Here is the input.
Amino acid sequence: MAKVRRDNRILTVSETEVNKYLQQGYDQIDDKGKVIKRATGGRTVPIAEYNRVLEENEKLKAELEELKKKEKKGAK
Here is the structure.
C-alpha cells in the first residue's frame, strides 16, 4: 500500500492506483511524510508565482554562465 497527500488529506491507496492519484494532484509520500513522487496534474499555480519562478530561473542561468566563464579563465 502507498500513501498519497494533497493539502492536509492523506490517503492509503494500492500501488496500482498511485498514478491515478498523482494525476489528480496528490503527492506520493513515505511513512515520515517526505514526498517520493510529485503530482503530475490536478494543480494550478498562480500566475504571480509562476512569473516569479521564471525570473528566478533566468537569474540563476545568468549566474551559472558567469561562473562557467570564471572557471574557464581560471583553468587557463
Observations:
- The longest strand covers residues 2-6.
- The chain is about 45% helix and 20% strand.
